[in-house]
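[RESIDUES AND BACKBONE]
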Amino acid sequence: MNSNNSSTLQTPKKTRKGLFLFLEFILGVSHKKMKTLRVKDRSKQGWARIMVSAISAYGNLLKDQELESLEGRVSMLENQRLEEVIKK
């Protein structure tokens, strides 16, 4: 791996945060487009599909974030339990 690629790599948390921000932006834009009265029905349907996709992706990111948090908590509890067993 060259040095240019390694400097552009981000941690999963930073990447996830960036995706959250991007999806929030997309949701804001699509919401604006949806509430505009002059947008044709066909366009509104397209923006509605974008909103549904963005909301779904946002939900999946939240689920991944919660799973990562739970994995960390379980790991911590397992380590605490192991330390207790070793002390006995």
Q: What stands out?
A: The chain has a mean pLDDT of 85. The CA atoms of residues 18 and 73 lie 24 Å apart. The two ends are 47 Å apart (CA to CA). DSSP finds three helices and no strands in the chain.
